[in-house]
């Protein structure tokens, strides 16, 4: 009986550890706001890197994070209609010579002295255009969702191949869903 209790406790500990590593990116808030010519998404994420990911980053491995956004219009008679969907890739790297972290999106970049500063800026998405202003019509209700994930396909091959490492490297936030009524 004690043996089964010990096995059960060990199993719960493993599941709790797996859940904690799976929740390394958590969406705290998200909203759509109108700009001059487009609807833009803003979101707050809390990003925590596991030790193996931090070690790889400090040794020069570049991490690619993808922000995914989708907007759907509910229809009672059929499947939801997809109004818009977008993705933005952010690149996080560490320069060993200058001892600085670099966060870049497209051709824009910013350097940081600490990893915490870089992760705080990466987790604070503001006014990212998603669809034209005319894409949402008044009187309709829309369902929007946003999430951020580590793109494992852009990692070097040795990090993609190991099934044991994939659990530690699988950083995906659950879809954060919210309703938009223009």
Uncertain segments of ≥5 residues (pLDDT<50)? 2-22
Give the amount of beta strand, in percent. 35-45%
- Total of DSSP H or I helical runs spanning 4+ residues: 5
**Helix vs. strand class:** alpha+beta
Q: Based on Cα principal axes, name the global outline.
A: elongated
Mean pLDDT metric: 85
Q: Got a strand count?
A: 9
Keywords:
single chain; 182 residues; alpha+beta; six-stranded antiparallel β-sheet; 9 strands; 44% strand; elongated
Give a written overview of the molecule:
By secondary structure, this protein is an alpha+beta fold. The chain is 27% helix and 44% strand. The protein has helices spanning 2-22, 51-58, 115-122, 157-161, 163-169, and strands spanning 25-34, 38-47, 63-73, 81-95, 100-105, 108-112, 124-132, 142-150, 176-180. The strands form two sheets. Strands 6-5-4-3-8-9 form a six-stranded antiparallel β-sheet, covered by helices on one side. A three-stranded antiparallel β-sheet has the order 1-2-7. The longest helix is centred in the N-terminal third of the chain and has 21 residues, at 2-22. The model is unreliable at 2-22 (pLDDT under 50).
């Amino acid at each position: 009986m004690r043996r089964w209790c010990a096995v059960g406790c060990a199993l719960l500990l493993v599941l709790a550890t797996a859940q904690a590593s799976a929740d390394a990116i958590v969406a705290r808030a998200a909203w759509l706001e109108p700009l001059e010519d487009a609807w833009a998404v803003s979101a707050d994420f809390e990003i925590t890197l596991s030790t193996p990911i931090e070690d790889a980053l400090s040794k020069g491995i570049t991490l690619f994070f993808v922000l995914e956004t989708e907007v759907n219009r509910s229809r009672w008679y059929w499947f939801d209609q997809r109004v818009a969907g977008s993705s933005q890739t952010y690149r996080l790297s560490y320069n060993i010579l200058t001892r600085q972290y670099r966060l870049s999106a497209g051709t824009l970049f910013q350097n940081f002295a600490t990893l915490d500063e870089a992760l705080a800026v990466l987790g604070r998405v503001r006014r990212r255009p998603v669809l034209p202003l005319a894409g949402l019509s008044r009187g309709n209700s829309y369902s929007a969702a946003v999430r951020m994930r580590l793109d494992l396909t852009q990692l070097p091959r040795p990090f993609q191949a190991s099934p044991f490492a994939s659990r530690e490297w699988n950083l995906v936030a659950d879809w954060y869903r919210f309703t938009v009524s223009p």
